User: What shape does this take?
Amino acid sequence: MGRRFKIALAGNPNCGKTTIFNALTGARQHVGNYPGVTVESKSGTFFVDGNEIELLDLPGVYSLSSSSPEEEVAFRELTRSGVDMILNVIDSSIPRRSLYLTTQLAELHIPMLLVFNMSDDARKRGLKFDTEKLERYFGSPIARTVGRTSDGIVELRSKIAKLLENLDGHGVPMLTYGADVDESIAAVAEKIDSLGIKKYSHIPSRFFAIKLLERDSCAMRIPELSPAIPEAESQIKHLSDIHAIDADSFMADRRYAMLSGACRDSISMTHEKRREISDKIDSVMTNKLLGLPIFLAIIYATFWFTFTCAQPFMDWIEEGFAWLSDFVKGAWPAESLPYLKTLVTDGVIGGVGGVLVFLPNILFLFLAIAVLEDSGYMSRAAFVMDGVMRKVGLQGRSFVPLILGFGCNVPAIMATRCIESEKDRKATIMILPLMSCSARLPIYALIIPAFFAAKYQAMMMWVMYLIGVVVALAAARILKGTIFKGDGEVYLMELPPYRLPTLKSLLLHMWDRSKLYLHKAGTIILATSIILFLANTLPEKASFSKDYSALISEVEKSEPDKEKAEERIAALENEKNAEILEYTVSGRVGKFLEPVFKPIGFDWKLTTASIGSLAAKEVFVSQLGILYAEGEADEESVPLRQKLAENYTPLQGFCIMLFCLMSVPCFATLAVIKRELNSWKWMLAEAAGLFFLAYSLTFLAYQVGSLLNIGV
Assistant: This one.
């Protein structure tokens, strides 16, 4: 019977770690968050020689220090007992920088296998490796791979199996930082040994000694190590007196010096090194004049691709839910639990189904984003936008969270932790909700086809995203010139070589995102749809302003023209339905607030949908689906987009999208703003400011459009 092992997958960002993870685990993956933080947790399983391997994909980090949440997570996971082996993925095209993390992992003395990934890029750069020397130096075997094409994966699996057979016999790294530093490390390690800490008995005391000498906050927060801190401070002072060192950086300097010697002995460069294709492409893609227009064109093409490919699938799903609703209405006896029947057809199918219709848009948008990320273009986009960001007072590093905001504002806000300047970080957090997150995409995908011709749809989507970016940058300029005034910082950007994304990686990326969307539709949106359905139907109206039954009966008897009779009856039924809806909780709230929202083109239905969208932006679509499904129990379902086109103008459609883009984000985003800024005041100020901004701009758009007779 096979055994179970746990392997930690570690490496720098952009080293191809994800492709190795996907190649080993395939679809047997689980995605979530680490407890207490929003850093993504991904694990998967695979089998080697009958043994079941749990592969834990650690966040991409450059070191095991504690300067970011990702590094803290990696530190915590690797020092916890239970990890049998480390799979250290290295970008072999830039070995010196990639091996910096390797030196820290080697200090853990956990059996380790080095995966020299991107071997094809290393060959193009003319790099040659003396594998045997490197293996002896780090005490670890080496496997050469090209993750995106799965080259070397078979050999990698074979070396994993071989190492697992003899975990106790793994090599010992030949790491030395100089006699004086090694003596200080030994002194602190001896103090740690004397403490007899059982919790970390599986980790060499030398590892923690180095961390204390670095004044690493993760290590210094470990209660069991606190008695050793005075000894560490004494040794820091000793080294400082001898070498006049900076305590915060001396170990980093020694590591790089050590790596320099190791790489000089084992890595050589042939004379065949030539200017790569990536450099030639970048001469155009990152050109001072062409870079920005190309970036905007690529974003436009992304939206055109999303709409064009998603539309047929959306139509099929929409027709499928309409058929399902009609089938349930027809199969469910009218006298049997009528209220539950309406809840299922209008609340669940109408609400959740109205959101699931837009799953193809989500899938194709994330497919396009995955292509841009995996190909290496996203780094170029950040480089191209760096100049623009500096003009509004921010640094290029702020652009990365803004791009992530197109997916979801919550992890994007968490990603601002990579911004060292506190003022830049706060300003970036405050403008991030203006990025069109994927939750707004169903709103755009509902409104745009309802009011705009097919040839203008991609452009309208592009315009909505562009409006968000422009307003966000303008807001950043104001914030950086007033509340968060301060000097900018230098940001050094790495441009990885262009790579051809693999189909497997793209499909897995789409699957991960669609799972999250479906989970959201099956939990938050389902619960909210049921609550909103109850608010849209209760209390039930017993008496009406007119005897609609008598009036309908009179029309049927007195009107000889069948077509005119149907029109008059439909008008009476709509009038009755309006009375029913206005009597409900939603109707009363909407009617109460309607005078406030009327100047921006909203009626009470749009008003209540806007309130419901605070739970999740997609609920705006769900709420409209429920509201416009009311009173149709005996009729065939009509697509929601058709109903909106019949009840509103293109100008109102544009104002709906503009308000949803600018207005208060979902509760989850507000909660993470409060947590990151540690301030209720800033969270409430953000909510109030966004509502004022949304209302002002939408008011201006609606009133000017009405005055000029545009889209009315």
